[in-house]
Amino acid sequence: MKILGGYRTKKNKIFFYSASLIGGIGLFLLGIKQTAAYLNTIVDSSVLMRKRNSDYIFLENVPYEEKEEFKLLTWWKRKKRLLPWRLLEIANAPDNKFRMKALHSLAAIKNLTDYQYQHMAQAITPQTAVSLARIRDVDQRFFFRCTAPLRYESKQDLIVLMRDLLYKLNKLTRHPCLKYFISNIFPTFPKFQAWTFYNDFDIYGFVGIRPSVVAEETVLVLSIEALLHHCIATGNGRAVVEAGALPLLFSCHRELNYDSEACILLGRLMMELSIYPEYLQDLYQTGWITVLAEWMQSNNQKLSIAAASCLANLDDDSNLKYEREVLLLHPPFKNNESIKTDIVLIHGLLGGVHYTWRQRGNRKGPVSIFGITSPGESIENLCARATSLVIDEAPSELTDDIHKKEEEVESGYVFVMSDIPVTEYATCNTCCAFEGNDKCQIEQAISCGNTNCWPKDWLPTDCKNLRVVGINYDTRLTDWRSWCPLRDRGATRVLAERCRKLLQQLMACGIGERPVIWIAHSMGGLLVKHMLIQAWHNSRSEQMKNFYQNTKGIVFLSTPHIGSPWATLHEAWRILFLPSTEVDELRYKSPILQKLHEEFKKFIFENPMEIISFVETKSMKLTTFEWEFHCVPPDLGDPGFGTIYEIPLGHMDICKPDGK
């Protein structure tokens, strides 16, 4: 009975616990149900189901062929998007043999968006940026835009930074010209009237005439010019870069980009700094490669030529260096053609690459003593007048009939050149007249434009594979007015010393490695003769030997081989006029020139070459008083050998042809 009683007690406990568990679960589920019912009375569940059907998108069953076309289009878009990056990857590789082809293909891409150009500009290496800048019609968005390499609030702050830079350079490389400039310019600026550094320079005795007021723009331009002169005088462009000049000069460019003369000074200064390839990264980061790329596309020849020379110096693809007085005129851009001949241009006294080799226009009247006065009517007006007579909507039958009649009329007359030689001392096939339907004359009439450098624009169109290099050196007539009052008179302007430096600069840019033809005006012919004689006397050097042996011809334009009567002054006039070193060496029957010409005759006898001389037969008028000067008479322009032409022009016009 005890066992039976214990069994019932245990069974009752199990039943009790089971009933309690089931009851608890039931109460819990009841609570959930009541809570859900209560929530349903608060929130309208139909709102959540209202737009469920509109979320469904029905996909049409696309045929298999259309799926394949869609895949092909997607693949093509992806490849098209990745193509510029693949080309950039090849272009950034310095040792890749396909690098040049990739650069030209990359520059030919014109359909990228702005963000794609900006993205690629951040991935372009400095060397690739230089190479791209040397490709014609490249998109400027490929280049990195430097917004503000230097922070300043006003131009006065910029002038303060420029003053500090010049002061720092004066401590690093002391030069009296820089001291003179600082003591005479910066104390005149209103903010620097109480500048204590002014007294530091008085102890040197550099106290000059100080202008009362100097404008902000003038101070900046003069400071850039002083910086350029310091680089030229000391030959230490590295100190300028190390002193932190690049970001400051970029800021000056942003403030003075409207001033063409200031930009030209900056371009010349960049030429001084571009001969140091180790600073390419600094030039790129400060935005100067972008500025040079913009200048390459400029219509201002002075800017485009300076930019072409700078970028050529920074380009690793060539080991050539165009230093201070050597300019690359053609080809300014990269091309796949190999250079076979070099043309070297050398101007004369008071000349320059941008002035001596201009095309002669319809100028009438006297010539200024420092250059040629501009013609009265611009070529733009003539072109506008010519184009205003053109009938755009003429019937084709009428135009064809007009062309036929033009050809009949043109074949009945000839063009005779206005500068035809009046005398010719040689037997050669000289053509001074052309038929009326001559292609060259027709193209010139249609183009209706003048050139600022005819050898650069005309010679490469007739002779392929040419490189045209211009020499641009400084000269002056008198030492009364000099930009640098403390320059050692004549120390570096003597003919022999000047030619020695020019010879080194020309060999640095590869002159002498291939056939060379010289075109020299006036004093430039004396420089050519002197350089060839110097190379001849140093023929032990293989580079010097190649320099004169590869000279195939010289064109002399009114070169005074034994001097000019115009440069010969009476002693009383010499004291008053104070002629420069260049004028002194151009005196008639100068012993230096007579000795040079005798040596040149021996050189020509041992190294025969083609010599062509153009001599002037007319005087030129100087200043408004119309003083007539016959600088180089025909007998003085005759070297005694070669082909000689007497041209009915004056001294300044003989190097400026009237047409192609």
From TrEMBL:
Membrane topology: Single-pass membrane protein
Transmembrane helix in keyword set: yes
Record's keyword terms, sorted: Endoplasmic reticulum, Lipid biosynthesis, Lipid metabolism, Membrane, Mitochondrion, Phospholipid biosynthesis, Phospholipid metabolism, Transmembrane, Transmembrane helix
Family: Belongs to the SERAC1 family.
UniProt organism field: Nezara viridula
InterPro entries named among the record's database cross-references: AB_hydrolase_fold, ARM-like, ARM-type_fold, SERAC1
Transmembrane segments: 14-32
Name of the molecule in the record: Protein SERAC1
Localization terms from the record: Endoplasmic reticulum; Membrane; Mitochondrion
A GO term from the CC aspect: endoplasmic reticulum
Key word Metal-binding present: no
GO biological process, one term: phospholipid biosynthetic process
